[in-house]
Design a protein that fits this description.
Elements (H helix, E strand, L loop, with lengths): L1 H17 L3 H19 L36 H37 L1 H16 L2 H12 L3 H27 L3 H8 L4 H37 L10 H11 L10 H24 L4 H5 L2
Helix pairs in contact: 1-8, 2-3, 2-10, 3-4, 3-6, 3-8, 4-6, 5-6, 6-8, 7-8, 8-9, 8-10, 9-10
Length: 292
């Protein structure tokens, strides 16, 4: 429990530092807007995003009734875009949590125990890192089938090695520190040393990796859905763009794809700002430079 409290305190201090960064504040504001949209989408003048429109409402440009216009089947693009925010954030955060959890566990074990176990785990990591991630995701998605759960699984399989390598490097340094040696000298078990002493000190790094993974996950989901490998029964930003291109009329109705593409770019920009702010915070001397 003490290790958990240390970790939570570390996250609290980290978030306070994040607010001292201009990029961090901008990223948080943009993310807060999308989080608000995702939570309150049913109350923001939306309808069922999959409901077909009445005859005559097909491919209508933005107007007072349909703020973002309608698609080829008369469905409201405003509603599709807002509900697509939910899918993007669910996939982003779930995949990031899964990826960071797996990568952190592998990194902790490899870095702490070393030897042949570390060699085996890092060779597995290197194998995944040398493979091109986009073709690998396409192959896995085609094998597993189209669903949001499978997309999250595919993203986690492809991206966990990045976190594992970063965490392992940090653990190699931490396990030689005085506080770890002191705990080891009084008989602390390997489990206590890993999860009670070392892991709380890598929580800020885990948070930094999570921010990065959310960005990659949202981008990956959009790409897979655009390629037709997403869940056809779930509206996402990539799905909207896919439907627009599949219609064959995209050249004459660009406003169909502008909202989802704008949302994809804005979300990635928000987490890129957060990632940059996190990287700055973790640089030596940041607190001193800010007078903290």
């Amino acid at each position: 429990m003490s290790g958990l409290l240390k970790g939570l305190q570390g996250v609290g201090k980290f978030l306070k530092l994040l607010l001292t960064s201009r990029m961090g504040r901008v990223g948080i504001v943009i993310f807060a807007i999308f989080a608000f949209i995702a939570i309150f989408a049913p109350y923001l003048r939306t309808v069922d995003p999959m409901r077909f429109g009445v005859p005559g409402n097909q491919l209508m440009p933005p107007n007072a009734e349909f703020w973002f216009g309608t698609d080829r089947l008369g469905r409201d693009i405003w509603s599709q875009t807002l509900y697509g925010t939910r899918v993007a954030l669910i996939v982003g955060f779930t995949a990031a949590a899964t990826t960071v959890s797996i990568g952190t566990l592998v990194g902790l074990i490899a870095g702490y125990f070393g030897g042949k176990l570390e060699e085996l785990l890092m060779r597995i990591v290197d194998f995944f890192l040398m493979l091109p991630y986009l073709p690998l995701m396409i192959v896995f998605s085609a094998i597993l089938g189209p669903s949001i759960r499978n997309i999250i699984l595919v993203i986690s399989i492809v991206y966990w090695p990045y976190t594992a390598r970063v965490i392992r490097s940090q653990v190699l340094s931490l396990k030689e520190r005085a506080f770890v040696e002191a705990s080891r000298s009084v008989g602390a078990s390997d489990r206590l040393l890993i999860f009670g002493e070392i892991m709380p000190n890598v929580v800020p790094l885990m948070f930094a990796q999570a921010v990065l993974m959310v960005t990659w996950a949202i981008y990956a989901e959009a790409v897979l859905s655009f390629l037709g490998l997403g869940d056809p029964t779930t509206v996402s930003w990539g799905w909207i763009v896919n439907r627009a291109f599949a219609s064959g009329v995209i050249r004459d109705f660009l406003w169909w794809v502008i909202p989802p593409i704008t949302c994809i770019c804005a979300t990635i920009l928000a987490f890129t700002f957060l990632g940059t702010a996190v990287s700055d915070i973790m640089k030596p001397g940041y607190r001193e430079a800010r007078g903290l």
